[in-house]
């Protein structure tokens, strides 16, 4: 079930069974749910929701959903209390009495909105290009665009972003260009912040599953944790790999059955 970049499968199971407390991080698109051409369509299926509820019933486990989606959008697709929701690549966090918004990202919402308006106008003639303003970040999706238009979409995104000086940077992902504020905050920083606030003991075991390039920021700050890349990416900082969301669900169901109450 779990493929490893190093031969430590038995050790992984041993670490999970021995852990007194586990901090579990799950990306949404491509990890919990399959990626779809239209970013508005993914929904959590009933079986996965049931597994998340089972995980929530385990007192030794704290589960965070961490995603590039805005935190309101993320919550609307899951609607389970007891989870921590980290949206916009960890720039905003709420749940389990935690609340955080990265200050410099918040201050740049208006220029980011203007940038999205510019992009929407410049990409109007490119079929399949979708501009999504998410408050603290933005995304340009091109799964519905032709391969021939990808270079033009990329040129427009990078050129428009550069016009706003050093406020934002472009992070290429899976059929997406994420536009994020230039800060020292990312998914990795969010993971460390959340872990610090939920448990300060030395016995916390972190498990992180993600499929996108933005998840590499988390993998890189968790060298001694159980980090799992979802998909067949040949290069990753994660120690293990799972093929797809189906395999992720199998792993999560096993985890819920293995972790004590």
Can you tell me about this structure?
With 261 residues, the protein is of the alpha/beta class. The chain folds into two domains: 174 residues, HAD superfamily/HAD-like (Rossmann fold); 77 residues, Trehalose-6-phosphate phosphatase related protein, domain 2 (Alpha-Beta Plaits). The protein is built from nine helices and 13 strands. A nine-stranded mixed beta sheet has the order 1-13-12-11-2-3-4-5-6, sandwiched between helices. A hairpin with a 3-residue loop joins β9 and β10. The two termini are 24 Å apart.
How would you sum up this structure in a few lines?
The chain is α/β, with parallel strands linked by helices and 261 residues long. It contains 9 helices and 13 strands.
Furnish the topology, listing elements before pairings.
Elements: E1 3-4, H1 9-18, E2 21-26, H2 46-56, E3 61-66, H3 71-78, E4 84-87, E5 92-95, E6 98-101, H4 103-107, H5 109-122, E7 130-133, E8 138-141, H6 150-162, E9 168-172, E10 176-181, H7 187-198, E11 204-210, H8 216-221, E12 226-230, E13 240-242, H9 245-258
Parallel strand pairs: 2-3, 2-11, 3-4, 11-12, 12-13
Antiparallel strand pairs: 1-13, 4-5, 5-6, 7-8, 8-10, 9-10
> Mean pLDDT, as a whole number?
92
The helicity comes to 25-40%
The CATH H-level homologous superfamily of the largest domain: HAD superfamily/HAD-like
Question: Number of folding domains?
Answer: 2
Which descriptor suits the 3D outline? globular
> Order of strands side by side in the largest beta sheet?
1-13-12-11-2-3-4-5-6
The major beta sheet can be summarized as: 9 strands, mixed
Q: Helix segment count?
A: 9
**What percent strand?**
15-25%
Helix-and-strand structural type: alpha/beta
**Name of the level-1 CATH class of the largest domain:** Alpha Beta
Tell me how many strands there are: 13
Please give the alpha-carbon distance between the first and last residues.
Answer: 24 Å
Radius of gyration: 18 Å
CATH fold name of the largest domain: Rossmann fold
CATH architecture verdict of the largest domain? 3-Layer(aba) Sandwich
Poorly predicted regions: 4-8
Helix/strand order, N-terminal first: EHEHEHEEEHHEEHEEHEHEEH
């Amino acid at each position: 079930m779990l493929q490893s970049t190093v031969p430590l499968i038995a050790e992984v199971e041993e670490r999970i069974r021995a852990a007194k407390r586990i901090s579990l991080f799950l990306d949404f698109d491509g990890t919990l749910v399959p990626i779809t051409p239209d970013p508005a369509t993914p929904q959590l299926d009933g079986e996965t929701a049931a597994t998340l509820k089972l995980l929530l019933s385990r007192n030794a486990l704290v589960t965070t959903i961490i995603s590039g989606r805005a935190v309101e959008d993320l919550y609307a697709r899951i609607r389970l209390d007891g989870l921590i929701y980290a949206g916009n690549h960890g720039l905003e966090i709420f749940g389990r009495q935690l609340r955080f918004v990265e200050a410099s990202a918040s201050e740049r919402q208006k220029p980011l909105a203007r940038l999205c308006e510019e992009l929407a106008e410049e990409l109007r003639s490119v079929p399949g290009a979708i501009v999504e303003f998410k408050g603290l970040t933005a995304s340009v999706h091109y799964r519905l665009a032709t391969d021939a238009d990808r270079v033009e979409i990329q040129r427009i995104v990078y050129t428009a972003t550069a016009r706003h000086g050093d406020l934002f940077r472009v992070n290429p992902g899976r059929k997406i260009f994420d536009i994020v504020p230039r800060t020292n905050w990312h998914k990795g920083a969010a993971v460390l912040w959340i872990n610090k606030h939920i448990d300060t003991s030395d016995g916390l075991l972190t498990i992180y599953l993600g499929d996108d390039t933005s998840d590499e920021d988390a993998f890189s700050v968790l060298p001694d944790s159980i980090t799992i890349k979802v998909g067949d990416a040949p290069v990753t900082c994660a120690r293990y790999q799972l093929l797809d969301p189906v395999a992720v669900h199998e792993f999560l169901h096993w985890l819920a059955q293995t972790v004590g109450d």
